[in-house]
Write a structure and sequence with these properties.
rod-shaped; 14% strand; Beta-Lactamase; 11 helices
């Protein structure tokens, strides 16, 4: 695997902040590694240039001294010739031949240059694994130079200082990356909120120049969108208001027709026009549902009111509602969502079931079920669009305007919920409003104080 593919296979942080911080820290560590490698190489060359000549001359002088001494006196001089990093060994324990390392080769070459190549026989190993150089004295007697090479332990103080530097710079990099990406995260959050609430508070125009410019541009866009939404609502409200008068006149004239054969059809068309105007106005108002304040609502009471209103009108609605369940939501919007779903089920199935269940991760599911003709799975996304109808069962003859589900979807988004539609097992449709776990208030902690009589 190539280094590029290996790097691509590594897990990558999902956030921009994580990616920027990881990239900078990785570059910092790589730069430190290259610097350490270069420093180690330079130190090695400096040691070779400064210490090997000194060691080679010292060893050559010691060999000359041993050559001049009688063989019986040489052993007594060995402690005087020893150094912290090497010592001499006479023929009593000659080392065995061994492969030469890089340092041994350089040292052997330096000693051969200083005292003569005939004195160095090559590298070897003493008993116990001590590295050594096999030597020869002037009279042909064997000798050895036992080496005490530096161990594998490194300079821990330098390593700790290096790690501390990397940690400090990594923290600075993380803070810098956070400073860069935080405005983008705030902008993304505001853009997501803008779709639900055009009247949301503007972004604070603070920070660096580029951040202030982006916040100012976003705030200007939000004001334009809010102004367009207000204008659309005003236009629809004006049209709905102005249509009330001609619709009322037409209804009165139909009433004055008497028993005319076309009178029922005209009244039906007028009712459909009135309903379409009201639904269009309700859809326009749904964009402003996010401006409704959140409240603590008794969910059982709110849903039971919807069910009772319909059962009092003779409609078949059954409910399975838990008692004592409180949620924080926008009650008017939630009432309109569930009401639209109930009316939709009653209109096309003749009966509806309302059920509240617990979902995963603390969610709350409000389900409206029916046994009507249902909607094919491939047509469900289209049915959530305004003025969309499934002609086989959602025709204009039933009074549908194609806005009920669209209004429910817009209002669900405004209160932070989700609207999920799916075919029901056994036939029919199930519409589920998913309230997030944050809609459930945290249970209050009740502090119980023991009175004197209650204490043991």
């Amino acid at each position: 695997m190539t280094p590029v593919r290996a790097a691509a296979a590594l897990p990558r942080p999902r956030t921009l902040w994580g990616q920027v911080a990881a990239l900078l820290v990785a570059g910092l560590v790589l730069a430190y590694a290259v610097s350490l490698w270069a420093a180690a190489r330079q130190r090695e060359h400096m040691l070779d240039a400064m210490m090997l000549p000194h060691v080679s001359r010292d060893v050559a002088s010691a060999l000359d001294l041993l050559d001049r001494l009688p063989a019986a006196e040489r052993a007594a001089w060995l402690p005087r010739l020893s150094r912290p990093n090497y010592r001499f060994v006479l023929d009593a324990a000659q080392p065995a031949a061994a492969p030469a390392g890089a340092f041994e080769q350089r040292l052997a070459g330096a000693i051969g240059s200083a005292g003569g190549p005939q004195r160095v026989l090559g590298p070897g190993t003493l008993a116990g694994g001590t590295p050594a150089l096999r030597l020869r004295l002037g009279d042909g007697s064997p000798a050895a130079l036992a080496l005490r090479l530096p161990g594998p332990q490194g300079p821990w103080l330098s390593a700790a200082a290096l790690l501390a530097q990397i940690a400090v710079i990594a923290l600075c990099i993380a803070a810098a990356a956070r400073l860069v990406t935080r405005p983008m995260q705030r902008l993304a959050t505001a853009a997501h909120r803008l779709g639900d609430d055009p009247q949301a508070p503007p972004l604070p125009e603070e920070g660096p120049l580029e951040v202030r410019q982006a916040a100012a541009a976003f705030n200007a866009m939000q004001r334009r969108i809010a102004r367009h939404m207000d204008e659309r609502l005003e236009i629809l409200a004006a049209i709905a208001h102005d249509l009330q008068t001609p619709l009322t006149r037409l209804r009165m004239r139909c009433e004055l027709l008497g028993p005319h054969p076309e009178r029922p059809r005209l009244l039906t068309d007028l009712s459909e026009m009135q309903h379409l105007v009201e639904e269009g106005l309700a859809y326009a108002r749904s964009a402003h549902a996010a401006s409704e304040p959140d409240e603590l609502v008794d969910l059982h009471a709110l849903l039971d009111t919807l069910v009772c209103d319909r059962t009092d009108a003779g409609q078949a609605v059954t409910a399975d509602l838990p008692a004592g369940l409180t949620v924080r939501t926008r009650p008017q919007a939630l009432r309109r969502i569930v009401g639209n779903l109930l009316d939709n089920a009653l209109k096309f199935a003749g009966a509806a079931e309302l059920r509240v269940d617990d979902g995963p991760a603390g969610e709350l599911h409000i389900a409206v079920l029916d046994r009507g003709p249902g909607i094919p799975a491939e047509d469900l996304p289209r049915m959530l669009q305004p003025f969309e109808r499934l002609e086989s069962s959602r025709s204009r003859d039933t009074g549908g305007s194609g806005l009920g589900l669209a209004i429910a979807l817009r209002l669900s988004q405004a209160i932070g919920a989700q609207l999920r539609l799916a075919p029901r097992a056994g036939g029919g449709l199930q519409a589920v409003v998913v309230l997030p776990a944050s809609a459930r208030p945290a249970p209050a902690v009740t502090q119980v104080k023991l009175t004197a009589a209650a204490r043991p």
